[in-house]
Write a structure and sequence with these properties.
Radius of gyration: 22 Å
Structural class: alpha+beta
Shape: globular
Strand order of the largest sheet: 1-2-3-4-5-12-6-11-10-9-8-7
Oligomer: single chain
Distance between the termini: 36 Å
Order of helices and strands: EHHEEEHEHEHHEHHEEEHEHEHH
Number of helices: 12
């Protein structure tokens, strides 16, 4: 470790080659930590955040990258806020504890008020909490990453191991379609030109989903999605599945594929066809395609929504969120706020009142 040093950079473009090299060599492929994904998010949606990129060098050779961003005195992962999990980029897992200590030593010598390392694997989170043990900190369990461990099985073998209720649920949409004389077909797109041509269809379906959940998906959010779709398709790491009922787009699943893994990323369906369960019907096609590709794992990404329980066979990777505060007072205020949220969550109207009031409190507390 004597010849290890840390270099700070604020320029995403200048560090691109180092980022890509370390990313491609890092175990546990994570599509949300790729340079293209992060750069697209920062360009379109990262207003107010400055890249804060820490690279460990051994002599003149980069061996690890901690991709952070800074706003005011707060530090966090340089990644979309709703990323599924985060990690530092480090091909050499054997030296990871020492590398984390080097990053921690550097952070001790710099000024910041809060460091939020959300969505880490618990083992990596523990390395950071140990390395920054003297800093006021709090670690909470986050939602999990459900996944299917394929273990060399065929799709039929996997399907036969599913519960009878799950198999009935799969047959039900087909029976309804047949009764109402609707035909169904799935279009699979991987070619960049095909994906680009299908963007209006994806926009239409995504807009319907977003209108129900959180308002229209337009402007910078849509530009960000378009860039990710096209960048990953150009790399051969994106697959778009579109389900048609009588030649009308009913649903889409967009997935990342790389290194023997499939990551279920974006999905949306036309509510007009809700009775025919288009999302459920398309998901079975997506899973089957992953088995037929010879993947080793299918990652459902973050969250334990009810529909995922039918598929993942109780497999889920837990996540942790360590948060560090340079001021003990700030940490105690943050702890008090967490306690109040937990109490107020029991009362819907009090919870809504707290949300409104908290918008007027200083950020980072």
């Amino acid at each position: 470790m004597a010849d290890w040093s840390v270099v700070l950079s604020h320029d995403l473009s200048a560090i691109r080659s180092t980022w890509v090299s370390l990313y491609e060599s890092t175990p546990n492929f994570n599509p949300h930590m790729a340079w293209n994904f992060v750069a697209a998010w920062h360009h379109h949606l990262g207003k107010g955040w400055q890249p804060y990129l820490l690279t460990v060098y051994q002599s003149d050779q980069p061996i690890a990258l901690l991709p952070l961003m800074r706003r005011g005195s707060q530090l966090s992962w340089l990644a979309a806020p709703r990323l599924d999990w985060a990690t530092l980029l480090c091909p050499d897992s054997e030296h990871l504890p020492g590398i984390v200590r080097v990053f921690a030593d550097y952070l001790r010598r710099t000024r910041w008020s809060m460091l939020d390392l959300h969505h880490l694997y618990p083992q990596t989170a523990e390395l950071f909490t140990n390395a920054l043990s003297e800093v006021w900190q709090h670690t909470e369990k986050r939602t999990e990453l459900p996944y299917v461990a394929i273990r060399g099985r065929t799709w039929d073998e996997y399907l036969n191991s599913a519960s009878a209720a799950t198999r009935r649920q799969l047959r039900k949409p087909g029976n309804r379609l047949e009764r109402d004389q609707l035909s169904a077909r799935v279009e699979t797109l991987t070619d960049p030109e095909q994906v680009a041509a299908a963007l209006p269809i994806l926009d239409h379906l995504n807009a319907q989903r977003s209108a129900v959940r959180s308002g229209a998906l337009t402007g910078s959010k849509n530009d960000f999605l378009h860039q990710v779709y096209q960048d990953y398709a150009a790399q051969g790491r994106l697959c778009v599945y579109i389900l048609y009922y009588n030649d009308t787009p009913a649903a889409h699943w967009t997935v990342f594929t790389a290194k023997g893994a499939t990551f279920l990323w974006q999905t949306a369906f036309d509510s007009v066809f809700k009775f025919y369960s288009p999302g459920k019907m398309l998901l079975s096609s997506v899973l089957q395609a992953s088995f037929e590709r010879g993947d080793s794992v299918i990652n459902f990404m973050q969250g334990m929504e009810q529909y995922k329980y039918r598929w993942v066979e109780d497999h889920a990777q837990p996540l942790a969120r360590p948060v560090f505060y340079r001021s003990a007072l700030q940490g105690k205020i943050a702890a008090w706020r967490r306690e109040q949220r937990a109490r107020l969550a029991r009362s819907e109207w009090l919870h809504q009142l707290w949300v409104r009031l908290s918008h007027h409190l200083p950020t980072g507390v």
